[in-house]
Specification:
282 residues, alpha/beta, Rossmann fold, 7 strands, 43% helix
Amino acid sequence: MYSPKEYWSNLAGGTDSADAKGFAPILHPLAPPWFNQIIDNLQFRALRRALALAALPPGTHFLDVGCGTGRWVRRYGELGFSAVGVDATIGMLRMARAHDTKAPLVNALAQSLPFPDAAFDCLSDITVVQHIPYGLQSKALQEMVRVLKPGGRMILMEVICGQDSQIGKDSHVFPRAPRDWISEVENRGVSLIEWFGQEFLLADRIYVRLAQTLFGRKGNLVKQVQSASYLSSSRESSVARRVYWQMRRITVPVSAWSESVVARIFPASLATHGMFVFRKEV
């Protein structure tokens, strides 16, 4: 049976030396470092847009739920906020310290936050609740709203495209449609300020879908390549993986470069993730 805490503990313990920035355990564990760097850049761009929508003053008391290896906690500090990180996995928090995270870090579950009511001005959850089984998501969201001050802001980025995406078939990801994420949060006493799509990666998604179509009859090559480490020593899988990622070395940067244009043309619901900004009612 899937256990979020066990899942993330295993990822924290399986990091290799090539992952100098600590992105692998919290983004795509089996992808090459350059891919995770591009994804992180896209997510940071989206987060800065969300922070602008939230209109937070300097010194805002910030909680990052599921802080992982500390990338957002560190950035919040650099942006002038007073940040605290909480994560269910001791291994992740150790990695956060190893990556020079100076902010306070707390070991706790999102469903049981060890903070008093109305303790924070703003809270972020970047791809965290999507990894919690559906039966526990409501409790986690309720806890997040509880520790938020009246008038405080809540920033969520979660998977929204499970129906027709390979992501939605992963046992550790529990996506919702945008309207469902909004409803789940608003039912707990907050209102939506705005939401937008994040990570369309159009050219790359077309390539991956094409590769699945072309090689699906040959032992599902794409699935084998995606499920093998980029450092795999198997000759057959390493050759296939090299070819697969060489192509994505073109399609991913092209997709990232065109992301802002694609976002203006296509509906936000076609993105992989949704970025939601809420305000807790007074």
